[in-house]
Amino acid sequence: MSEHLLEVNHLKKYFKTGKGTVQAVDDVSFTLDAGKTLGLVGESGCGKSTTGRTVLRLLEPTDGQVIFEGKDIAKLSAREMRHMRKDMQMIFQDPFSSLNPRKTVEELIAEPLKWFKVHKTKAETKAHVAKLMETVGLAPRLANVYPHELDGGRRQRIGIARALALDPKLIVCDEPVSALDVSIQAQVLNLLKELQREYNIAYIFITHDLSVVNHFSDDIAVMYLGQIVEKAPAKELFTNPVHPYTKALLSAIPIPDPDAQVEQIPLKGEISSPINMARDCHFAARCPYATEACHASTPELVNRGNEHFVACHLF
Ligand code: SF4
């Protein structure tokens, strides 16, 4: 039995389209322990959101395994999977579009409690919703207002309260602060961190912005075109990035750590099409160090020590 809360092994999610097969997630593996955060970082289209959704089995995997608390979730019956859903929740990027505009804050937060018939009486549900609102910092006076009457930060707090309602062990946070103002981003990140400490929740924190996950994540995995190209403890990744793509992402943000000696690599060009990809290094078209070998085979993700994994023919 796995000692990790979550173990993802060689996960693949392909989509068939008229133009060919989109290899959205292509052989992704990682582990996550209770109460820890894995930051999943990369540009739009790199497969990070599809990875999150496939881990939660909101999308059926094409291949590979997702082991949650020692159970292969692909082998669970619909009833068992429904039960497990309580433990595996999601917070979405755009709180406005993920909330029914015709429901009040109280009704929205009560929804998951009703779906899973957590309480026998309306009074119990109401009391539970009030507690959740307090937990996420929503004032009681907001119980009967509608999402459009609130700012983005408060709407995201509704999303967090809904995700928390069933006492999950894992939450996939899909760009949870990227639609928010910078000042509100910090408040929501602090709230997520406090909740993690209090309830020992594990997060998969998906973002295109490395600066957001720096102090938030225990480990960071950098994805490029469906694959993890570098994975390491957060401080190690920021102070000693190895993969040219990670260095390019880091080049784009100011790094406050004086120990960081980061080579500047500007990121040129657009991410390539994920359709019918060759068995090459998918970053080769944009990499200043690409050689013939990089166009001939996909580099494996190799542990260079200190749990620092890199997929690059240079290393
Ligand atoms: Fe660049 Fe080659 Fe490394 Fe890919 S394998 S990142 S193309 S050097």
Can you describe this structure?
This protein is of the alpha/beta class and 315 residues long. The chain has a single domain (6-87, 168-310), classed as P-loop containing nucleotide triphosphate hydrolases (Rossmann fold, 3-Layer(aba) Sandwich). 30% of the residues lie in helices and 22% in strands. It contains ten helices and twelve strands. It has helices at residues 48-55, 78-85, 105-115, 122-135, 152-164, 182-199, 210-213, 234-239, 244-251, 292-296, and strands spanning 6-17, 20-32, 37-41, 63-68, 71-72, 88-91, 170-174, 202-207, 219-224, 227-233, 302-303, 309-310. The strands form two sheets. Strands 6-7-8-3-9-10-12-11 form an eight-stranded mixed β-sheet, with helices on both faces. A four-stranded antiparallel β-sheet has the order 2-1-4-5. β7, α6 and β8 (202-207) form a beta-alpha-beta unit. α4 crosses α5 (152-164). The longest helix is centred in the middle third of the chain and has 18 residues, at 182-199. It is globular, with a radius of gyration of 20 Å. The mean pLDDT is 91. Residues 243-244, 281, 283-284, 287, 289-290, 294, 299, 312-314 line the site of iron/sulfur cluster (SF4).
Q: Count of DSSP helices?
A: 10
Classify the oligomer.
Answer: single chain
Q: Output the radius of gyration.
A: 20 Å
Give the SSE order as H and E letters.
EEEHEEHEHHHEHEHEEHHHEE
pLDDT averaged residue by residue: 91
Biggest β-sheet, characterized?
8 strands, mixed
Based on secondary structure, the structural category is alpha/beta
Q: List the ions, cofactors and other small molecules found in this model.
A: iron/sulfur cluster
Q: How much beta, percentage-wise?
A: 15-25%
Number of domains as seen in the coordinates: 1
* CATH architecture annotation: 3-Layer(aba) Sandwich
Q: What is the CA–CA distance across the termini?
A: 33 Å
Q: Looking at the structure, what is the overall shape?
A: globular
Percent helix, as a range, is 25-40%
Unreliable runs, pLDDT <50, ≥5 residues?
A: none
